[in-house]
Amino acid sequence: MEAFSTVSEADCIRGLRKVRELFQSYSVTTDMALSHLNLLRPVLCRFGSSVVRTPLVTRSSVPFLPQATCPVVLPNFARHYATKKSKAKAKGQTAKVNIKAALVEDIISLEEVKEDMGAVLTSLKDDFSRNLSIRTSPGALDHIIVTTKDGKFPLNQLGQISMKSPQLLVVNMTGFPEATAAVTRALQDSSMGLNPDVEGTIIRVPVPKVTREHRENLVKLAKQFSNKAKDSLRRVRSNTISQLKKSKEGVSDDTIHLIEKQVQQMADSYAADIDKQLATKTKELLG
Fold it and tell me: Other CB atoms closer than 10 Å to residue 112's CB: what's the count?
């Protein structure tokens, strides 16, 4: 044991490397390698875990080594790889921009852009409530546009609409009798499936019975209104970007890019609201 007191840590490490080479060599027996390791055991116990850094046995065919009385701590080299799910999640997430309107009001008014986009959503809600109601009401015919020789007018500006029963609406054309034929034609050409009956200046409009087919037609009409709303939303965004590019002088490209991203985020948010309105209306119409 006294001979090992003069062995340095460097000598011990070299010895360990020699033992590992012996295990990896096909020309040396296992007993010979174990004998070298037994000679180094007292030194290993003295230096502790700081000496042993890597596992000595690399071949599965070598039997287990006798347990030493000193602790051996091996480092953990486990490597964690990103899964496909985490990669897809990271790819789908984009950094959101939140620019304060006051900071860019000299370049563009984000508040006005928000108001214009909000007006598109409000108009869609009005179209849904006026034109896509299953319940009969005088306002159900208000949206119908009548083409006359003097121009285009909403039906409620040309005739007085009243409801005689849940299945019958009456349009009184006494105020504009010359537009009676045009109103009748507009009612027939509407997407509501109406078949008006004319008697002088009085137009009787039987309300179709609410069938499954009628409900599905109303859903198609709701999709048309939604698509038109999205077109209007895209026009607002496009006009805003065009206005932004005209004011590029004196404004950094980074600022322009951030504002464009903010406008796109606003448009995406209102487009999502349009989809929600359509989904709610479709569920209501189909029952």
Answer: 13
